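Distal membrane arm assembly complex 2-like protein: structure tokens wanted.
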Amino acid sequence: MPHIGARTLAKVTPTTPGQPLDELQMKKLVRKLEMYRDTDIRQEKMLFMADKQLTDAECEALGVALKQLGPTETEYIFFPVGHDDDGVGDLSAASLGDALALGMCPRLNVIVMTEAQLTDKGMTAMVKGLKKCPQLRDLILSKNLIGDDGFNALIDVFLDGGFQVVQKLDLSGEKFLKHQISDRSFVRFAKALAEGEMKLLDLKELNLQDTMISDEGVSWLATALGRGNLPRLESLYLMGCANLTDKCAAAVAEGIRARKKMPLLNDIRLGYTEVTQSGKELIKQAAREKGKKISVILELLNGEVPDKD
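Answer:
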């Protein structure tokens, strides 16, 4: 990832929604981006919004430029972090979504928008364009303000055949500002995987830490695992999901046992939930029965020192 310098750059004048950038606005936008090749956005593979002080209205200019200049060679898009009220969020996401829906970033691999002000409205607008990004593998939207409606919009994309090569999906919240993703959307997601309605055969990492999901959703996910519908899943991060209990751990253990061979899953994080050492042992024993080891990180709510797996 490019180094974020301490310099202060000239602000990009906010655009009128839907209006193309003029020459001066385009030059100012280019100065906001960490670009390795040259000053041609069309040829640059990584677009990195380096200035942490950018507002949402200023970042919106990136999507406008992509629509204006595309199709581009863009593979990576990193938005700036920041929890300021006018920080990057829905305007930027919607503008990018419009560009993606028009097929302006056909080679896009990664989208990162973390520690921002993204809500369900912006996420819904962004993900509508993912069907036109056949190479997109990582969607990282951690530490925002998203919930069930945003996740359901993404599920709609999956069910419609988009974003099928996803490898990393990170919708995690944070300790004191949890994402409001609950079983209202997560059960739909996991059940569709279990029943084969949705195929995410390349998914390696699923991160839903610090969300509101509960045992039912994880049980359906474990069923998908047991049926071989998550053949490449290696990491499952559920720390801080306070509604989880030993019931979900038992379901994961049964999912492992249902496979003839041990799944690739090797890293499960269940700290700061209601899962106990007994639940952890259920998962580890199921792996032992397959002749394998699995790391189950469990930091208990009562402050006990976690095992070193």
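Strands lie at 33-34, 46-49, 76-78, 110-112, 138-140, 168-170, 205-207, 235-237, 267-269, 295-297. The chain has nine helices and ten strands.

Cheers.
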